[in-house]
Amino acid sequence: xxxxxxxxxxxxxxxxxxxxxxxxxxxxxxxxxxxxxxxxxxxxxxxxxxxxxxxxxxxxxxxxxxxxxxxxxxxxxxxxxxxxxxxxxxxxxxxxxxxxxxxxxxxxxxxxxxxxxxxxxxxxxxxxxxxxxxxxxxxxxxxxxxxxxxxxxxxxxxxxxxxxxxxxxxxxxxxxxxxxxxxxxxxxxxxxxxxxxxxxxxxxxxxxxxxxxxxxxxxxxxxxxxxxxxx
Length: 231
Known about the structure:
This protein is an alpha/beta fold.
C-alpha cells in the first residue's frame, strides 16, 4: 500500500531535549552532595520518575516534582528549603531553553511534506510542547499535531485513522523504541528508529529486528530515500 502519512516524534528526534534533563540531573546531584552519593541518587530519582509517570506524566514538571520527592526521601525530610528553591529554579530554566534543531530535521520534514501528510506526535506537558513547536519554526509543515499523555498502539491507530488513511499507509519516526517504534509497529504502521546519543532509560527496549516494517537509520537525512523506496 502507498505510504501517505509520515509522523515524527519531537524531543530528541527533531530537536534536542534530553541533554537539558542530564544537565539538571547533574545540578541535582551537586545540590545534594552532602547527603548521598550520586549513583545512589540517580537510581532513586529514576525510581521516583517511573513511579510518578501515572500521576505526573512526561515532561519537565513531572521531573522537577520527582527531584523534590527524591530530595526529601534521601535526606529523611531534612532537605533545606534553599535546595527545594534551587530545584524549582532549575525546572524553570529548563522550560525556557531555546530550541536546537537536530541535523537534517528541517530539510527532511520540508522535503517529505511536499508529497506526504506530515504529523507530529509527541508526549509531554502541553504548554511546554506547544512552546517548543512554536520556537522550532517547523509548525507550518505539519498537517496535524497530537500531544498525548502516552504512546500506545491504540493511540497510533486512532491518530493515523483520523489524520490519514490508517496505520497500514503510515510511518512513525522517532528516537524511542519503546514509545515511537514498537507501538506503531503493533498498530500496523512502519516504525523507523533514529537513535539519539542521549535517551532516557525508561525509553529503552529491544529492537524488533525481525519485524518486516522496522527500519533503523543513523540520522534523519536518510529518511527521504527510505520513503522513496517504499513508494
